[in-house]
Structure formats: structure tokens, C-alpha cells
Design brief:
With 455 residues, this protein is mostly beta strands. It is built from two helices and 23 strands. The N terminus is likely disordered.
Length: 455
């Protein structure tokens, strides 16, 4: 499908859905889309009825239809501190879906049309895919004696585990990260267990050319226990293999296991999310000894004007302290969420220590404002700086400086209706001593504008 065809289809969909602005607030729509419950729309007239359309008058057999349209503009001055030319571009994507369920059997299909326009330089897998299959899987859900269920799933799907620090959707960029494989989900009372054997989808720039990766694999088990309403714990083990991994100028086979524990919840005005991850394995004849600690604590003031919510995030991801000693200590976030540290995220969660204070304000019922500041330091002085996908973007060189730089970001969002939203952001990144000592160190300026329709 051509870009013009996508835009025409989008325009027709916008016209069709314009009337939904007056609809009652729908169930919470997620980025996954497949875990939404629209059963309350059964029998409703018009477009609302498309969210839960009975088949043959039987609510056990029904279909759900949905659509996401997004246009996002981004402009950068001095990306990667001047190592790349200035650029502006427009991301466009359309993601319709249909979900059909009949008793214990289910089929979910979500194609994607994703394009980038105006980008200078090489397009990456997060920029463009043409027309392709984003998700397509089949479920078999079986009830367990007593209470609970077990679901068997096979096909292509988006997977977001916990806080998406290690396995995320890559939703913020243009093309999400999907996986091909099998998954088993067990749910019983307050306990849930996911076990999976998947490979990431390798995105191509043409139509229908996305393929299952033959170099990377992910296996794991992820358990969640809800101790009390609003309070939970995760425990997980993830196995990752990459036959063409690259660290410190060396390429080889990487076999890495990640053991993790996460505690999260909220009580009154206080919320918390803490996670520790330990990694062991082998890379190119070296032992892997890496780890990461991530925390977020927030305090809300709902009775104050603008209902401020202040928070502090702190992250520590290990780096390689002594290259060539037979031990690799660089943490690998594998498949993290996109826009990891905000709208401007030149740095990924490897070999860093960062502090990330911020404040959210509710300026009106549907308008929020967020101001954040992020300071970055290197965890290991012998290791460099990496981007979110894991590529080294600035080698350590001979610098002994720890400070990478500071980022300031202002973001605003407006939920215009139940289906339409807008967002804008301004970001500034000022280079620290390490960047100044190892190459170009110009200030990065970034602006973003986004319009989204989600039905």
C-alpha cells in the first residue's frame, strides 16, 4: 500500500470515528490491545457495538474491532552531540486489529502500515516497515479445577514484561518490537506465571518482509504475585542468546541469563517500583558478570492545586571495569521499551548511573504537564556509552571523566476525547566532561509533536 493510500484510509477512519468524542469513557485502552475487555459494549448500537459484536447471537462467540492512527513529528539539532547531521522527520503508522473469540478459542490479527518521511540518513527497524503483520496469534484457553485458567498461545505478538526494562513493546518509536514463538500463561487467584520461547521479529523496510530472527532468541519464565490490592512482586528468569553479539569491539556468541526481582505498588499518596537484575553467562570465551538496579518512588498531592505528583527515579547498570580480563560486566537490557529515559533518549541502560527527578501537573481534567531533569554518569570508567538498542555510541577512549551529561525535558499531553489525544515535548541535553573529552559535545535540542486516534 502506498503512503497516499494509508493517508486516505486514515482520513476515512478519522471521519468515521469523529463522532466518538461524545461517547462515554471506554475501558482503559492498552498498547498491547489484546488484553482489553469490551464486553460492556455488547448490544450497543452504532460504532460502539463494533467493540463487542456478537456472532450468531451468542456472546461466547464475538468479535472486537479496533484501530490506532498516529502521526509523530520529531526534530533534532546536533543528534549524538554533533556526530550525526541535524534532522527532522515524520513518523506515520496505522494499526487496525480484529479479535475473534469463540468459547475457549481465539484469534487476534493486527497488521501495521508504518512509514517515515524526511529522515536524513539510514532508516532503522524502529522507523519503517511498510505494510506488514505486527501481531497474529491463536489462543486456546482452558479452565482449571477450582479457579484459574491456562492459556496456550502461538504466533506473533507484542510482549511487555513488568516495567518493560528488559522486554518491552518499543511503542514510543514508530515500529513496535514483536516476537514469534509460543507462550503459556497460567493464572490462579493472585498468582500468574508466563513461560515463553520466542524470537524477535527482524523488521524489513519493504512490504511483508518482516522475518523471524535467526540470530537472537529469548526464553523465560515470569511470575507475578499480588500480595494485596495495589501491591505486587515479580520474580523471573530470562535466557537470551545472540550469535552475533558485539561488546568492546569483539563479536561472538552471547549466552546470558537474567535473574530478577521486582516490588511495586501504591499505598495512599505513595507509589513505588523497585527492581534488581543479575546477569550471568558467556560471551566470546568471557564470563558475564553484570547487574542493574532500578527504582522509582512517587508522592502525590491530590488535594493541592494542579494535583502535583513528584517522583525520583534512579538507575544503575553495570559496565565493563577492565576490558580483556576474561570477564564482561556490561549489562544488557536486551529488548527494552522505546523512549527509555524520556522523549529524548540518546543513552540506553548500560554502564550508567542516573538520577531522574520529575513532577507531573494536572492543568485541567484532560491536560497534563511533566517536567523532568536527568543526570547521567558512567558506572565503569573503562567502558563507553551505549544507545537503547545496545550499540556503543561513544567509546571510553582515554577519558577518566564520569559525568556524561544532563537532560531537561518538558512534555504536555491533551486527551481531547475518548479516542483522540495530542502530545508535545521539548528536550535539551548538555554534554558533560566525558563527552567533551572524547569527541564532539554540542548540546542536543529536540522537539516532538504527536497526534493519535485510538479506538
Amino acid at each position: 500500500m502506498s503512503l497516499l493510500g494509508v493517508l486516505r484510509a486514515a482520513a476515512g477512519s478519522v471521519a468515521l470515528l469523529a463522532g466518538t468524542a461524545a461517547l462515554a469513557e471506554p475501558p482503559r485502552m492498552t498498547n498491547l490491545r489484546y488484553d482489553e475487555d469490551w464486553s460492556a459494549n455488547a448490544g450497543k448500537p452504532g460504532i460502539e457495538g463494533l467493540k463487542f459484536l456478537k456472532l450468531d447471537g451468542d456472546s461466547a462467540a464475538h468479535a472486537t474491532f479496533g484501530l490506532e492512527l498516529r502521526a509523530r513529528y520529531e526534530g533534532f539539532d546536533n543528534p549524538l552531540w554533533g556526530d550525526e547531521p541535524d534532522t527532522t522527520y515524520l513518523w506515520l503508522r496505522a494499526m487496525p486489529y480484529v479479535d475473534v473469540q469463540a468459547g475457549p478459542v481465539r484469534g487476534f490479527v493486527q497488521p501495521i502500515a508504518g512509514y517515515v518521511r524526511g529522515l536524513s540518513g539510514r532508516k532503522g527497524p524502529a522507523d519503517e516497515t511498510g505494510v506488514d503483520l505486527l501481531q497474529g496469534f491463536a489462543d486456546l484457553r482452558l479452565a482449571l479445577p477450582g479457579s484459574g485458567s491456562i492459556t496456550l498461545r502461538a504466533g506473533r505478538e507484542l510482549i511487555g514484561l513488568g516495567s518493560e526494562r528488559l522486554v518491552g513493546l518499543r511503542y514510543g518509536p514508530n515500529i513496535p518490537q514483536a516476537f514469534d514463538g509460543a507462550r503459556i500463561m497460567l493464572s490462579r487467584g493472585r498468582f500468574r506465571l508466563d513461560a515463553f520461547h520466542v524470537r524477535p521479529v527482524q523488521v524489513g523496510l519493504g512490504d511483508f518482509d518482516d522475518r523471524t530472527s535467526d540470530t537472537r532468541r529469548l526464553d523465560g519464565a515470569y511470575a507475578t504475585w499480588t500480595a494485596a490490592p495495589g501491591i505486587g512482586f515479580d520474580v523471573y528468569l530470562l535466557g537470551y542468546r545472540n550469535s552475533v553479539a558485539r561488546f568492546g569491539g569483539r563479536t561472538g556468541v552471547e549466552n546470558r541469563k537474567t535473574f530478577g526481582i521486582r516490588a511495586f505498588g501504591n499505598r495512599g499518596r505513595l507509589a513505588w517500583n523497585c527492581e534488581i537484575m543479575v546477569q550471568r553467562g558467556r560471551f566470546a570465551g568471557q564470563r558475564i558478570r553484570a547487574w542493574s538496579l532500578a527504582t522509582e518512588t512517587a508522592l502525590s498531592f491530590p488535594a493541592a492545586r494542579f494535583k502535583p505528583r513528584v517522583r525520583l527515579r534512579a538507575n544503575l547498570a553495570s559496565g565493563d571495569r577492565k576490558p580483556g580480563d576474561g570477564q564482561l560486566e556490561t549489562f544488557n537490557a536486551m529488548f527494552p521499551k522505546g523512549k527509555y529515559f524520556g522523549e529524548l533518549s540518546p543513552i540506553g541502560p548500560r554502564n550508567i548511573l542516573n538520577l531522574h527527578p520529575g513532577i507531573d501537573l494536572a492543568l485541567a481534567k484532560s491536560v497534563t504537564l511533566e517536567l523532568t531533569e536527568i543526570s547521567y554518569w558512567r558506572a565503569a570508567l573503562a567502558d563507553g556509552v551505549y544507545d537503547i538498542p545496545g550499540q556503543e555510541i561513544r567509546a571510553a577512549g582515554g577519558s577518566k571523566a564520569r559525568h556524561i551529561g544532563d537532560q531537561l525535558e518538558l512534555s504536555a499531553s491533551w486527551k481531547a476525547s475518548a479516542t483522540i489525544s495530542f502530545a508535545a515535548s521539548l528536550s535539551l541535553f548538555r554534554a558533560g566532561a566525558f563527552l567533551r573529552e572524547t569527541g564532539l559535545a554540542r548540546a542536543i535540542h529536540m522537539g516532538g509533536l504527536e497526534a493519535m486516534l485510538k479506538f
